[in-house]
Amino acid sequence: MASQYPENRVLIIMTGGTICMRPSPEGLVPARGFLEAGMKPNPSFNDGSKPDPLPVMTDANTEEYLPSLRTPLSTYSRHVRYTSFEFPILLDSSSISSAGWSQIANTIRNNYSRYDGFVVLHGTDSLAYTSSALSFMLSDLGKPVILTGSQASIFALQSDAVDNLLGSLIIAGTFTIPEVCLFFNEALYRGNRTTKVSASSFSAFASPNCDPLAKISAMGAEVNWNLIKRPTAIAGFKVIPDLDTAHVACLRIFPGIKPEMIDGVLRVPGLRGLILETFGSGNAPSGEDGSLTSIIRAAVKRGIVIVNVSQCQTGSVSPLYAPATVLGNAGVVFGHDLTTEAALTKLSFLLALPGLSYEEITKQMQISLRGEMTETAKLQFSHPASGLPSLTDQQSVFTALGYAIAAGNLESVIQLLNGDQFDLLGAKDYAENTAVHLAAVGTNNDVLRELLKRGASIHVRNRAANTPLFLAGKVGNQEAVGLLREAGAHLHIEEVETVGKRNHDM
Ligand code: ASN
């Protein structure tokens, strides 16, 4: 039965997981026939219109027609028409590997032109890893790929399966969000920002360093379009399969860890990369006599890429404290706010790319490829829309410093200056104001004092040829005038002349 309303097509790719599980003598195991047994009887998934089967490429060369269903009319006055392709072997997601990720990616590629969106059903255990991996493997993606699963089976009486699946299906069939996303418990997250935080709660995932891309409620979906990343290259969608997970390792630092343990891992034959989960903002013990640092430096010399990520959920790995700086100096890459899942899959992805040098891999690990990390430039404010001139890293961080100074936020100023990689004390804004100029007309003279204590110049002039002292006097900030004078500041001769002339004119 045809409908007068439009419909979008969504391919559900079933890989396994609790969502499709049924009891067995060995415990819960994935069961086949999900569409027929789990979705068809439920009126939320089936408007009873008995639509024709849909074509699915079950591999690169084989097209099969599979039974399809259609949802009732959504809030967006459209139906979602869908079918489900079940992988030949359904997994508990704890058993998925790089081969499984390629299988998902290739299925999306083979069916890309046939569907408006994709929903991947997957167990929750490794869902954040798969979401991260796919985000790197699907290059120049232009359609939604939404991964979901559930904490209880769709066949259980009390389950999150229906809500998670219905939410994913409606978003994938309504909004062209060109990202790999994870939908769970009413929120759509960027897949490579997620981590599993509960083994039993329906709120099983968190995205600690990135807000949800969308939230759903009784009113429908509210998409945060400002956050959505779009492919900006003029290039078609392609799949980059086969991540090199076989040659990467992940190690969690703990108090008392023996340097030999780390050396043991770093000497695993064929190892090419290590994700080091460190304390706080990237700190690790240096070992007696710096032995741990030597071990790490030697491994870096052997060409092993070591990435520093935090054991903390929020915040960022940076050279804030000496131990992190020591690691950085030994050649360890700062992983900023990457999750372990994203760091591991990103490194596996980069290691599998043909012809990338060690330098290129370490460089790419520190920039955002798919929105997986907050770039320093984006810590405090957003970039202008693409097409407009963009800022250099120094300009971006300096702008962040400028905002902190304007707000009189001494703590942020200290934090930015401690992690300074961009010569912030020498940097200037568009009007050639230095940090001292900004502080001279700021609201907190302790900020000015801090800058002076760090050796910031008091003599540099801005584009209007003014010194900080001149500006402080102009706004009547007498305390700053005193402080600057105390530090040896004086008006530039041209300022003296101008002031003199103006006085004379008046
Ligand atoms: N063990 C299950 C899996 O990851 C857990 C789940 O899906 N809730 O496949």
Automatic annotation (TrEMBL):
Alphabetical list of PROSITE patterns matching this protein: ANK_REP_REGION, ANK_REPEAT, ASN_GLN_ASE_3
Question: Signal peptide location in the record?
Answer: none
Q: Where are the ANK repeats?
A: 431-463
Key words of the record: ANK repeat, Hydrolase, Repeat
Q: What is its EC number?
A: 3.5.1.1
Query: Superkingdom of the source?
Result: Eukaryota
Which residues does the UniProt record annotate as the domain Asparaginase/glutaminase C-terminal? 247-365
Q: Which Pfam families does the record associate with it?
A: Ank_2, Asparaginase, Asparaginase_C
The enzyme's main class, written as a single word, is hydrolase
Query: A Gene Ontology molecular-function term?
Result: asparaginase activity
Family of the protein in this entry: In the N-terminal section; belongs to the asparaginase 1 family.
What is this protein called in UniProt?
A: asparaginase
Organism lineage: Eukaryota, Fungi, Dikarya, Ascomycota, Pezizomycotina
Q: Which gene encodes it?
A: Aspg
